[in-house]
Design brief:
This protein is α/β, with parallel strands linked by helices and about 280 residues long. It has ten helices and eleven strands. The chain has a single domain, classed as Vaccinia Virus protein VP39 (Rossmann fold), CATH 3.40.50. An eight-stranded mixed sheet has the order 4-7-6-5-8-9-11-10, sandwiched between helices. Strands 1-2-3 form a three-stranded antiparallel sheet, with no helix packed on it. α4 links the parallel β6 and β7.
Length: about 280
């Protein structure tokens, strides 16, 4: 698959512009990064990862791809499209920070405005190489392996940045967003997967989100907040295992909890998602 080059790309080592030279990206200092045959570039700097293979494992990516492709979270994708469509035009730059295997960006990309003058620039990145490799098979975008802490994009270049069920780094997000640009976050609400959590754990806890407070401390202002809650169709055992495998609950629950989950079948769960539209204030 061909790599979609963007002039917004920056070297993770010295922040200089990257130019494409055949199968590599190069900066003026001589740093070079190979374009993988799948159509992405690994722009993780040496200090950007805390393990040899950071982010979601190949098994988690496979589970997430299978579950999301079956349409159980389609209402979430529809709400994202409703929120982002008014913010995007043919010259917009839209970035998914922590794009995973690309499901939401693919759904969004299919609905973005297009004209004879062009289409929005769409960039997705994730710290997991396995996730980005899977994303390249979904649709054509600029795919990168990169970290939220060191986003390899030009400062002040992004119109809309997505942080969906991820780990936001608001200072980095603020750096790459334009003044007045929008950060859209999606996070689990208190009832998210409540039925499954009650099976997995002896007692269920929910910690109130501090996303808005953290964002405001970093110079964002809250535009709007909204919630989406629905119940899935009854899930078969294989789908329950896919859902468990794509979430942190796979690692947090005990063996006894996993054994209880393995007995479930025809089991609907509640999806509860909270969306925040946050606006970057103008720099002084």
């Amino acid at each position: 698959m061909n790599f979609l080059y963007s002039e917004l790309l920056r070297c993770p080592l010295d922040k200089l512009a990257l130019r494409q030279d055949n199968t590599q990206l190069r900066c003026a200092s001589g740093h070079s990064f190979d374009i993988a045959r799948q159509g992405y570039v690994n722009l993780l700097g040496p200090g950007d990862k805390r393990s040899r293979d950071p982010g979601d494992s190949k098994e988690m990516v496979v589970a997430r791809r299978a579950f999301l492709s079956s349409g159980h979270y389609e209402p979430v994708a529809r709400r994202l499209i409703e929120l982002i469509r008014p913010l995007s035009g043919v010259d917009s730059v839209i970035v998914d920070a922590g794009c995973g295997e690309g499901y939401y960006l693919e759904q969004l990309g299919a609905q973005l405005p297009a004209s004879r003058h062009g289409t929005p620039t769409v960039i997705g990145f994730d710290i997991s190489k396995s996730a980005v490799q899977a994303a390249t098979r979904r649709f054509a975008a600029t795919w990168l392996v990169a970290s939220n802490r060191n986003i390899p994009l030009a400062p002040g270049s992004v119109d809309c940045l997505l942080s969906l069920f991820g780990f936001p780094v608001f200072e980095s997000f603020r750096t790459v967003l334009k003044d007045g640009g929008t950060l859209l976050t999606a996070n689990a609400g208190p009832q998210h997967l409540i039925e499954l959590r009650e099976i997995l754990y002896p007692s269920v806890r929910y910690s109130a989100s501090t996303v808005v407070q953290q964002a405001e401390s970093a110079g964002f202002s809250l535009g709007t907040s909204s919630a989406l809650q629905f119940k899935t169709v009854p899930l078969h055992q294989s789908q329950i295992q896919q859902l468990l495998g794509m979430t942190p609950h796979l690692f947090r629950t005990s063996m006894a909890g996993k054994e209880r989950a393995a007995q479930l079948d025809n089991f609907p769960v509640t999806v509860d998602v909270i969306f925040h539209l946050l606006v970057k204030g103008h720099t002084s």
